[in-house]
Write a structure and sequence with these properties.
The chain is an alpha/beta fold and about 240 residues long. Helices cover about 40% and strands about 25% of the residues. InterPro entries: AB_hydrolase_fold (IPR029058), Esterase-like (IPR000801), Mycobacterial_A85_antigen (IPR050583).
Length: about 240
């Protein structure tokens, strides 16, 4: 069997969760690692933009390779799909659906996943991950629910004024651990809310995070605001938290 074929020996369950808070049914993708055994327990990675993390980020193939070849601890991955028409409204902290989305994540999604899959329930065994605004909402989930989330992967997070004001107002954040990646070619990124210098915004957020004693692993390297960049960086992010 070729190495590539081995990396496809995993299970991805298509699931869905009917949310009272969002008043809709939300598609989920649940990755079960090689050798999955429901009598064991696993760390869990919750991904915003679930469809993109699986299709463009190729997280299932990457984590399988890391588990089989690089001694990564086996983990379950839960991709939470988003309707692109509502993405900014849900992920941006000033969005009209943002509060409901964060409540959905904490009050509906976690109990649903934990009742059906053998994921560990300590906050240190949960990782919440996102790209761009997905990184933003992942950080805000940890700030809103520190008893639930303390580990965040941010791939080119959109950390604009409202997020940085939230950080400035926060108490000590030494309980929070964050893997933060930004591409040096992201100085002129067009978004729904305007054009932004993501390098500048991430550097400013880094200063605020450090002032609050966040355990921060911060990386700048050449890269654009695209999955072509983030996909190649997922392995390092997974290894940072899962060994």
């Amino acid at each position: 069997m070729s190495d590539d074929a081995r990396y496809y020996q995993r299970t991805i369950v298509k699931d869905e969760l009917t949310s009272v808070l969002l008043q809709e049914t939300r598609p989920l993708r649940v990755y079960l690692p090689p050798g999955y055994n429901e009598l064991l327990s696993y760390p869990v990675i919750y991904c915003q933009d679930g469809e993109q993390f699986f299709n463009f980020g190729r997280i299932a193939t990457t984590i399988t390779r890391c588990i089989l070849d690089e001694d990564l601890e086996p983990a379950i991955v839960v991709g939470v799909d988003v309707n692109t028409a509502n993405r900014t409204s849900e992920y941006a902290p000033e969005g009209e659906r943002h509060d409901a989305y964060c409540r959905f994540f904490a009050e509906e999604l976690l109990p649903y996943v934990e009742s059906r899959y053998p994921v560990r329930t300590e906050r240190s065994e949960r990782i919440v991950a996102g790209d761009s605004l997905g990184g933003t909402v992942s950080l805000h989930l940890a700030l809103d629910y520190p008893s639930l989330f303390c580990r965040v992967i941010s791939l080119s997070g959109a950390f604009f004024d409202i997020t940085r004001e939230r950080l400035k107002a926060a108490d000590d954040l030494s309980w929070l651990e964050m893997y933060m990646l930004i591409g040096l070619d992201e100085t002129d990124v067009k978004t729904e809310r305007g054009t932004f210098d993501f390098v500048r915004e991430n550097r400013l957020a880094k200063e605020d995070l450090e002032r609050k004693n966040v355990v921060l692993h911060y990386i700048e390297k050449p890269g654009k605001h695209l999955w072509g960049f983030w996909q190649g960086e997922l392995s390092a992010a997974l290894h940072y938290f899962l060994g």
